[in-house]
């Protein structure tokens, strides 16, 4: 797929404002066509128009043809560029065209705020704007993607554009797609990691030989970003998608929302062979996965993770479940998917905080399971948050391979799989006592690793440089380093609900060196409390 993006739309649609925001997310350069024309001719747009519309359109087409030779590139076109067939043909052949649509009142307000009305709107601007919209509507309808650009925050419009492109596989394709096997004896499946994989989602599902109807479970935020594009991708493969949208956030992992999923599946008369597609992050994956495990005693499940944390961890391994008021994921089941389809391009639509939290699980893998990965992360500490395809795709694939190997050897966490819980005893406790959703899971894991590494240090299990090196990676991604303002005793009490506890004692996953760890159930309570107090928010009094 050619890496050129052309933004088209009427004056006031926000093309020039949105273009640099889209370009920043993609890491591409951008140009404004009108500004480029003025720079090349040494004349203002009104001055060129004064010589005649035909003359302006000729110059506009010539300049567009010249700049469209660059790649990658985001172009904010002029409002009338779409009128010329040669321009439309060029944009169709050279890349992807995105039309920004706005309501008249939105456009007029924006135009009024920035200065005098352009000549085409002089007189009755509202009436003339309506006439322009009616005249040009057929041309905008030819665009590859149509985006509602009425939102007051142009960053959100830019995010929706990037998500729409990712959902349609229009952000380029990876040179190679990595297929990572999960060779479980009874339920083997493959994790596909590839830049542009979302655009091939329908083909991936069709290849599984499942019925041509799926329940597409997602949350409201992901639906706004990806649902239209994903549905279109599935339709191209002859697959009908029945969307089921839940509220965004950890609170959706509840019996109430699980029941709502059952109701929706039953109302649509979904049958045992028809698949549930979990489109979203860890919350969607856990909830939809548990629904798949239990509806009609089990229906096929396909994970399509859209967050970094879900792509490297949550979508792999078959853990599904919902939260209880006393503990995270206290109710659930092991249920393996039929496939996991991960497209790193989807991460370009993420809020920066969600990118940072995903690194909690990546650093976890490196700290206790892969010394080489840890060294790689240290060597690229300044680039950790980069979402460049050549960097993030192999990192995701490496983490997926680590988890796939462990899950294959220990599907139900009876042995070495417990090491994947490094940082999670404290992390889950923090999520519970702060009210699910206050801390993101990856943020809680970072704090859990900070506590646990210090426990290991005080127990003489690691050298001081382990703590320092792990802390340095956490700082490199802007992870939290101070516990929430909650009494250490309250956090400690919540660890008693940890699923790894046996006989009332917590089994701690403790590092022994970079890339290795073990478990112990003899960590003194007083030591845990001492470390919690060490990392507590300044000035926080102890309970009681």
CATH topology label of the largest domain: Rossmann fold
> Beta-strand percentage?
15-25%
**Number of helical stretches of at least 4 residues:** 21
Mean pLDDT: 92
- Which structural category fits the helices and strands? alpha/beta
Question: How many discrete structural domains?
Answer: 3
- Biggest sheet layout: 7 strands, mixed
CATH 2nd-level architecture of the largest domain: 3-Layer(aba) Sandwich
- Helix content bin: 40-55%
CATH class of the largest domain: Alpha Beta
Integer-rounded radius of gyration: 26 Å
The total count of strands amounts to 16
- Separation, N- and C-terminal Cα atoms: 63 Å
**What spatial form do the alpha-carbon principal axes imply?**
elongated
Strands ordered across the widest β-sheet: 6-7-14-11-10-8-9
Low-confidence stretches: none
Descriptive account of the structure:
With 544 residues, the protein is α/β, with parallel strands linked by helices. The protein folds into 3 domains: 4-167, P-loop containing nucleotide triphosphate hydrolases (Rossmann fold); 178-350, Rossmann fold (3-Layer(aba) Sandwich); 409-534, Dehydroquinate synthase-like - alpha domain (Dehydroquinate synthase-like, alpha domain), CATH 1.20.1090.10. The protein is 47% helix and 16% strand. The chain has a 7-stranded mixed β-sheet, sandwiched between helices. The protein has a 5-stranded parallel β-sheet with strand order 2-3-1-4-5. A two-stranded antiparallel sheet has the order 12-13. Helix 13 (308-314) runs parallel beside helix 14, helix 17 packs across helix 20 (488-494) and helix 18 crosses helix 21. The longest helix is centred in the C-terminal third of the chain and has 21 residues, at 389-409. The relative contact order is 0.08. The mean pLDDT is 92.
